[in-house]
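> example.struct
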């Protein structure tokens, strides 16, 4: 059974364990995330900046939402650093993480934007309702009020 919970700074060691696999796949953002976490440049669980992990017996994946640094609109967040272990993919872990992130983010943000460099990533986000955008700093966007309205 997969449990989604907020990450805490003490999780940095288990996140580092994912970094090797991520690097081998060409995803350097996990290593950057670890460095940001160690230097306290990011927070794990505040209203505007949150990171969640998917756990069973170990960390299967994680992701976060922060203010989008590329827009001046405080109601726009950025979905960041979503990574799921290869052995946990296609089991719904990524979908669970994104839905949990959206639910928490909808308390503060009306929009989420993201950037993905892979076709598989783009297809994943599009299946979840994200739309392509031509913005230089984002590949996809989603209005969160749809999620908040659907929950009521």
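> example.seq
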């Amino acid at each position: 059974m997969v449990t989604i919970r907020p990450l805490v700074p003490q999780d940095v060691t288990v996140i580092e364990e994912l970094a090797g696999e991520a690097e081998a796949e060409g995803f350097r953002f996990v290593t950057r995330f670890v460095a940001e976490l160690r230097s306290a440049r990011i927070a794990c669980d505040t209203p505007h900046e949150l990171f969640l992990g998917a756990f069973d017996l170990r960390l299967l994946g994680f992701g976060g939402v922060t203010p989008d640094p590329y827009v001046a609109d405080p109601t726009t967040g950025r979905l960041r650093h979503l990574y799921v272990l290869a052995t946990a993919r296609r089991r719904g872990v990524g979908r669970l993480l994104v839905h949990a992130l959206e639910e928490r983010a909808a308390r503060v943000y009306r929009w989420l934007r993201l950037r993905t460099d892979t076709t598989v990533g783009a297809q994943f986000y599009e299946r979840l309702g994200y739309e392509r955008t031509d913005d230089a700093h984002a590949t996809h966007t989603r209005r969160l009020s749809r999620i908040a309205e659907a929950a009521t």
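> remarks
The two ends are 27 Å apart (CA to CA).
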